[in-house]
């Protein structure tokens, strides 16, 4: 592992505290600070860390709201001019433009954005495994030193994440589509529920809960994000609004062809999303296996998978208490699915291709 650099984290929110927990677990020496004494105290208790005398930090991670990032980086640079600096904010282009005007700092800074989070903000929601298996975007410029990229990549991988690289502008346009627009839609949809009584909302199914989950997010955080990425967000809102208007017109005209086309576009778009967060999209074949409701059946099915020499990528279980059978749906590569189906049928399992 070698000598790991000492790390200072400015910002004891969800991301900053989770970074601290992950890096400490890996073996880094980490100190965390926050202008909010309560958040700082909680984060340090989670780290089981005492207040240390000032160290010479090799890495400074800035995990504060978007509007505060630049001023905190400048302040930290004056204290730690030999450190490398990275931020974890949700927008990149405006910040990078400001950094470009600081000749010395620009050589020591790399923008980054972990694609992980929770609706719960602050250190109370922090987890050491928050980034495990997730994507973490870095946004180097043509002038970013390779040595800096290598050091930041090592740190990100220590948190358990996978590094993806793109330009700051590419990042902001992408995030407007895959993160910022979904947040806006979820918040607006949840806002439409204000006129519905709690008694009636008790009848809502899981679909409403799923589509409004993001509406629990903090408005204070999102005001900064929307303002700093407003141009790309406005473009995505215009496109989304156009689709809503098309549906409106199709409903008025009772045009089932156009309505069906919108739903089919949604089916296709949804199918492009990877089943594993941060992983590259893959196409799976699904096998549904009906098993009796008795002890050991799930373990027996996994043993059959091992005997067949196949790798199960994902699974889901459908079963209600008292039901005599359960349905296990396995996601496999096409070749493994074919192999496992034959193996299970030969061994008298009830298998269905879905």
Automatic annotation (TrEMBL):
Keyword Cell membrane found: no
Annotated EC: 1.3.1.12
Domain Prephenate/arogenate dehydrogenase: 5-281
Metal-binding among keywords: no
Gene Ontology biological-process annotations: tyrosine biosynthetic process
Keyword terms, alphabetized: Amino-acid biosynthesis, Aromatic amino acid biosynthesis, NAD, Oxidoreductase, Tyrosine biosynthesis
Signal peptide from the UniProt entry: none
CDD domains: ACT
Known catalytic reactions: prephenate + NAD(+) = 3-(4-hydroxyphenyl)pyruvate + CO2 + NADH
UniProt domain ACT: residue ranges: 286-354
Record-linked PROSITE patterns: ACT, PDH_ADH
A single MF term (Gene Ontology): prephenate dehydrogenase (NAD+) activity
Root EC class: oxidoreductase
Involved pathway(s): Amino-acid biosynthesis; L-tyrosine biosynthesis; (4-hydroxyphenyl)pyruvate from prephenate (NAD(+) route): step 1/1
Protein name, as recorded: Prephenate dehydrogenase
Organism: freshwater metagenome
């Amino acid at each position: 592992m070698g000598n790991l650099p000492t790390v200072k984290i400015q910002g004891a929110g969800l991301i900053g505290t989770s970074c601290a927990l992950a890096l400490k677990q890996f073996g880094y020496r980490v100190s965390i600070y926050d202008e909010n004494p309560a958040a700082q105290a909680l984060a340090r208790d989670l780290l089981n860390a005492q207040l240390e005398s000032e160290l010479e930090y090799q890495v400074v991670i800035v995990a504060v709201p978007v509007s505060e990032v630049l001023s905190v980086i400048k302040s930290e640079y004056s204290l730690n001019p030999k450190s490398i600096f990275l931020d974890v904010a949700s927008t990149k282009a405006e910040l990078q433009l400001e950094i470009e005007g600081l000749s010395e700092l620009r050589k020591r800074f790399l923008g980054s954005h972990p694609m992980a989070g929770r609706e719960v903000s602050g250190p109370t929601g922090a987890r050491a495994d928050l980034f495990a298996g997730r994507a973490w975007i870095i946004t180097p410029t043509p002038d970013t030193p390779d040595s800096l990229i290598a050091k930041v990549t090592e740190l990100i991988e220590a948190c358990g994440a996978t590094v993806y690289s793109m330009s700051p502008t590419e990042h902001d346009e992408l995030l407007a589509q895959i993160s910022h627009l979904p947040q806006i839609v979820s918040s607006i949809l949840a806002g439409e529920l204000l006129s519905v009584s709690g008694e009636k909302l008790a009848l809502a199914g899981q679909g409403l809960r799923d589509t409004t989950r993001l509406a629990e997010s903090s408005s204070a955080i999102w005001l900064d994000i929307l303002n700093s990425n407003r141009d790309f967000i406005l473009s995505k809102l215009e496109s989304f609004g156009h689709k809503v208007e098309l549906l409106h017109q199709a409903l008025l005209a009772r045009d089932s062809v156009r309505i069906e086309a919108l739903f089919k576009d949604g089916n296709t778009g949804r199918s492009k999303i990877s089943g594993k967060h941060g992983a590259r999209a893959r196409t799976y074949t699904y096998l549904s296996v009906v098993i009796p409701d008795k002890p050991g059946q799930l373990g027996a099915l996994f043993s059959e998978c091992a005997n067949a020499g196949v790798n199960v990528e994902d699974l889901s279980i459908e079963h209600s208490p008292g039901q005599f059978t359960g349905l296990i749906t396995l996601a496999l590569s096409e070749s493994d699915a074919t192999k496992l189906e034959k193996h299970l049928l030969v061994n008298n399992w009830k298998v269905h291709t879905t």
